[in-house]
Design goal:
The protein is mainly alpha-helical. Helices cover about 70% and strands about 10% of the residues.
């Protein structure tokens, strides 16, 4: 195996570790949010993204990017959340083709209930993952990565 092959394997191993950490955390979040708030992780992500707009709404394509979903998956998810009364669609006054999405009062209330569940599950998953030798180095690197991203 040459140096280039070694470098590829190191990157591949890093990617596998990152994917394992993501799966570990997402599984913990999914269990807690489903059990205690009746939301999936992606539903929580959408409600949270809309809430972070500080009273504004988001276009569907912005919401798709924020939730890492395809446009069609975002539309299906928005339909489900709208049927549950958690969000609503608003026509864009500047562009007749544009549709905005925003939280309803019920969406805000459920998000307020779900946020502490999410935060506690995330903290617990990170603590538990830190005890897994393969994941601990990545967790140790997260503070430096967060500082570098600023």
């Amino acid at each position: 195996m040459g140096i280039a092959d070694d470098a590829v394997e190191v990157r591949a191993q890093g990617w596998r570790t990152l994917a394992a950490l993501h799966d570990f955390i997402e599984t913990a979040l999914e269990r807690a949010l489903t059990r205690e708030a009746g939301l999936s992780v992606v539903e929580y992500t959408v409600l949270d993204a809309l809430d972070r707009q500080d009273g504004w709404h988001m276009r569907m394509q912005q919401l798709a990017r924020a939730s890492a979903l395809s446009p069609s998956a975002t539309t299906r998810l928005v339909n489900r959340l709208e049927e549950r009364g958690l969000l609503t669609r608003v026509d864009c006054l500047d562009d007749r083709r544009g549709i905005y999405t925003e939280l309803t009062g019920g969406g805000h209330a459920l998000l307020d209930q779900a946020r502490p569940v999410h935060d506690a599950a995330l903290a617990g998953a990170l603590d538990e993952a830190h005890g897994i030798p393969e994941l601990a180095p990545l967790l140790d690197a997260l503070p430096q990565l967060a500082l570098a991203a600023r």
